[in-house]
Amino acid sequence: MKIAVLPGDGIGTEIVAEAIKVLKVLDLPFELEEAKVGGAAYEAYGHPLPEATLKLAQDADAVLFGAVGDWKYDKLERSLRPEQAILGLRKHLGLFANFRPAICYPELTHASSLKPELVAGLDILIIRELTGDIYFGQPRGRRVAVDGHFPGAEEAFDTMRYSRPEIERIAHVAFQAARKRSKRVTSVDKANVLETFQFWKDVVTEVHAQYPDVELDHMYVDNAAMQLVKAPKKFDVVVTGNMFGDILSDEAAMLTGSIGMLPSASLNSANKGLYEPSHGSAPDIAGKGVANPLATILSAAMMLKFSLQQADAADRIESAVSAVLAAGLRTPDIWSEGTQKVGTREMGDAVVAAIVGSTASTTTKTITKS
Ligand code: IPM
Ligand code: MG
Fold first, then answer.
1. Which of 8, 114, 205, 298 could form a disulfide with 68 if both were Cys (CB 3.0 to 4.6 A apart)?
2. Whose CA is closest to atom 10 on ligand 1?
3. Residue 158 catalytic?
4. Residues of the chain with CATH 3.40.718.10
5. Is 246 a catalytic residue?
6. Under CATH, which number does the domain 1-96+268-370 receive?
């Protein structure tokens, strides 16, 4: 199993190092190969997604990604900015289906900005289409307006577009995911205003005919943003486009107390995936050893489950994370009175210890039995 490891920028290197520690202790036949991406790659090779990094990602069975970006690159021309690395990987690997679970761990209910009763037991899955929409639509650019409110003025424009097959495939992903959960899908659109999202709604409705066992409802994106903070537990699977998904997934993540806890998976039609924490590179805390590595560690677990067919190993990681939280260990982003504040490395070490400990106790049990 070949894993491309792309730590990237900011806290990316610190948190990926912890995930690698965890992967190594599992004692599975992994081959890990690391490459630079984002600002780090720009500094070293003059491009955020060098050919060699892309090739490594394309040849690997899965990609473990940290984060990219730093304010210091904001003045670079767009094609050289760190964000282009992740957008390029999504495009070149065809990673159209982005899974962003928002789960509120019982121990962290009080870390949420919402009242505990609104988020206790929250378990939402946002499925964001990741290679279309206004993110990738052409044409885009700057020009002199020939019409509109100010003909002759300088203007900028992007193109929002979705083709039928793009909507169909993400709708199938959502309905199939819902079948493994509580069989409810909310499709989020802006059909009241946008042609693209009237089409989205129509196509999702058509695909739904193949999934009579799954309940589908439609919600406008502004209302969805409101419902997410009003009654988040009413949602189960949410499927939406690239732009709305970007916004709503950050909102949903924060309901759980910390975006530092949430993993994500981006898959293509061959189930090959890129796994990354839902949060960014957090340059403000980079190098301080305080970042929460759990989102990345949980992303590694998703990788084992979705792309490497190692569901047992994934379960071991997830149980270890729960055990560490239950033991009261907290990085500063999830710390509260009465819990033990730890740094990035200590948190990673604790997860490793929990995995090793559980292996040891299973072995003991087996020995006792025999
Ligand atoms: C995300 C990020 C990216 C996005 C950026 C870094 C390009 O915000 O993964 O949600 O907008 O998709
Ligand atoms: Mg985002």
1. 8
2. 246
3. no
4. 1-96+268-370, 99-129+163-261
5. yes
6. 3.40.718.10
